[in-house]
Amino acid sequence: MAGIRIIAIGFLLCSSSAAIGQTVDLYSRPFQAERTRTYDVLHYRVHLIFDEDTKSFSGSNTITMMPLSDSFTELHLDAETFVVDSVHNATGEMLSFTQEPHNLQVRLSRTYAYTDTLQFTVYYHASNVDIDSEAYGMSESYDLGIDFKDETDENPRLINTLSFPEGARHWMPSYDHPNDRASHETLLTVRPEYKALSNGRLVSVTEEENGLMTWHWDQRLPHPTYLYVAVAGPYVILEDSLRSIPVNYWVYPKDVDDAMRSFERTPEILEFMEALYGVPYPWIKFDQVTIPGIGGGAESTTATVLGHVTIHDEHAEQDYPSDWLVAHEAAHHWFGNLVSYRDWSQTWISESFATWSEYAWACHAHGSDECAVNLQSKKDAYFREANDRYRRPVVFEHWQYPNQNFDRHTYQKGAVILEMLRGILGPVNFQRSIQRFLNDHAFQPVHTYDFITAIKDVTGQNMEWFFDQWIYSAGHPEITITQAWDTSGTLVLTVEQSQDMASPFVYRIPVNVRIHTASGVQEEQIWLSERTNTFEFQVDGRPHFVRFDADGTLLADWSFEKDIADLRYQLVHDDVAGRRRAALGLEAHASLTEVRAVLSDCAASDPFWNVRMTCLDVLSRNITDSDAGLFSASIHDPHSRVRAAAVHGLGELGSEEYSDLLVEFYGNDTSYFARAEALRSLGKIGDPSIVQFLEEAAQDSSPRNVIRSAAEWALEQFD
Question: Quick one: pLDDT band at residue 341, thresholds 50, 70, 90?
Fold first, then answer.
């Protein structure tokens, strides 16, 4: 590294596994090992007949399997919610069985050997279905298993399953764990006015003697049961395609006019994922179907389930675009579906990759500025969990319910880790590693070491040190940077890691540094390897500012104290991530007139919305009456998040003289998000004359009920 002299200083450390601010003791949860199985399911053939009036169903499941040992005489299946009526072997002979609260034990009519294939059918029914999802570690609103939805203003009457994470066992007897994959057929007998969806190819739609219709779907390629799906209702199917692959959108009749706003980029997203991974879309179709009760999506192979709130009107597009969600769920058709994790502790293989892919899509579709904001938002989400709740390894075997593995460590932290890995390997080697991993393990359950091996095989690099730090250890680096410059032309950066953790003691991290001087920009890469590292750079004059982590990918909580002059220069001349950080750095000096002036200029004229918003946020936390003109002008900003920050600031001023302006803003603005913030500001101002206005606003409809929630909060301020 030309121009750099590295001085390493090591210290003997005392370690502690306790993290500051931790409120959840994860290690009190039971240790979980990968589930042991005694057979390999090859195929399920499920037939369900529904009675919506009684919220009931009857069903059968013909299961084809192979023993994983000799002397195979009995087996256990996961079974919840339904009552088993009988079990028959392939010749129709009744088999003895015992049903316990959580499983079904079947005793076979003869002994089977390791090389045998056996088949039997379970007949069952369920009445007055009402599953307590909280008893299985899910939220009260999550309809785990199978649910009958009544008609509301938001949705028609319909039936849906949610098999993630262990919901399949509530509507079909099965081996309901990720380390087994099977093909399956799903037959759904429903009302004649309904359309019914499941995984795979539609084989037929047949009218029964009683007038009901049976939809027969066939998923030939194997996948785990948490990806199985069944949905039925009065859907309208909007047809699209990716080359010759059907791409369809199943939506409520009332949503037809708005649906394509959410889904129209789906083929483009799938093509992008193909190029991103170097692997063609591996399935026979791609459907997306909306249901009530969930806010995001639930991955299910070839038939992704999405919360119906993803469909919105033209005004909501500025606040709640759907392309990121479509991208995330599309990515699962490679990560989570094509390759699936072997055990729940390995969930990052699905969710981290999908969240990283969603970020990669943002970079591709919306440009480098949005890309930087997207990555920073993922860091911030992880840090909130790490600092306020707990820190755990990304791969972690202590959990009571599978859903406890699906947190901000699995989603956001893992996504940032992957982007750091991409930076170390380089984009070409990173893609080649992903391609090898997917191709070598297609239609198989995988473990993290399979990905590590793929990297070794493709690039020759042993990255176990990286995975030990970031995947198998808890926490993140906590770094303090100081700088010094002398007239001889030497810039000295001292970087100290101050985290207190059991392992690793010190992170080994490559970091890019960008030095801005009067004569230009100097790029350097440094490696942190000791508790304290000191780096010397030869420069041609005092830097205007130094940018640590120049590419913005480092997952670290770091501070870098700078002079006001450096921060002011950075606020104008750095990229989006740097300008945002400079604005936050200036907050400590926000009482100074010259600092408020540069922050005001930033809020009014920075070319990117997130930086304008950040400058308004900094000023609003230190707001004075002299800022009223800036905030009043900013309510006309072209970006809804900036307008929301502006009306928030007016609320912080707390003066009734802004009530009329905020009421007018609420009536005229097109952003639900910004209008909701205006209502909260009215609540903070506390003008009693607007109580009736707030009560009327609480009746207004909006995506995710943001208007009603804000109006109700504002009204509570008058109590």
Answer: very high
User: Is the separation of the CB atoms in 173 and 202 below 8 Å?
Assistant: no
Q: What is the pLDDT of residues 378-417, one digit of tens each?
A: 999 999 999 999 999 999 999 999 999 999 999 999 999 9
User: Taking a C-beta distance cutoff of 8 angstroms, is the pair 105, 75 a contact?
Assistant: yes
Q: 14-28: b or e for each residue (b if 16 or more CB lie within 10 Å)?
A: eeeeebeebeeebee
**CATH class of domain segment(s) 235-342:** mainly alpha
Residues 6+ apart with CB under 8 A from 458: 429, 432, 433, 435, 436
CB neighbours of residue 419 within 10 Å? 21
Which residue is it, tokens 């939506």? 251
User: Inter-axis angle of helices 593-605 and 609-620, to 10 degrees?
Assistant: 140
For the chain, give the number of residues: 719
- Residue 446, both tokens: 């995988």
- The DSSP line for 278-340 is T----SS-EEEEEESS-SSEE--TTEEEEEGGG---TTGGGT--SHHHHHHHHHTTTBTTTEE
Q: Which residues are paired to 47 by β-bridges?
A: 60, 187
Higher pLDDT, 15 or 232: 232
Distance CA 196, CA 217 (A): 9
Q: How buried is residue 137: exposed, middle or buried, by Cβ count under 10 Å (0-12/13-18/19+)?
A: middle
- How buried is residue 358: exposed, middle or buried, by Cβ count under 10 Å (0-12/13-18/19+)? buried
530 CB-near residues (< 8 Å, 6+ apart): 8, 9, 10, 11, 506
For residue range 533-545, list pLDDT tens digits in order.
Answer: 999 999 988 999 9
* CA–CA dist 499, 17 (Å, integer): 11
**Of 315, 278, 329, 292, which Cα lies nearest the Cα of 152?**
292
- pLDDT tens per residue, range 107-118: 999 999 998 999
Backbone angles phi, psi at 230, to 5 degrees: -145, 125
Domain with CATH 1.10.390.10 in the chain: 26-30+344-470, 235-342
* The two structure tokens encoding residue 341: 């994790």
Nearest to 222 by CA among 349, 66, 342, 44: 44
Distance between CA atoms of residues 72 and 7, nearest Å: 65
Fold annotation for 1-11+478-561 = Immunoglobulin-like (2.60.40)
Query: How is residue 502 written in tokens?
Result: 């059991």
Residues of the chain within CATH 2.60.40.1840 domain(s) are: 1-11+478-561
Q: In this structure, what token pair is assigned to residue 717?
A: 């301020």
User: What average pLDDT score do residues 12-24 get?
Assistant: 47
Answer yes or no: are the C-beta atoms of 44 and 185 closer than 8 Å: yes
Count of H-run helices and E-run strands, the chain: 19, 29
**For the domain bounded by 26-30+344-470, which CATH number is listed?**
1.10.390.10
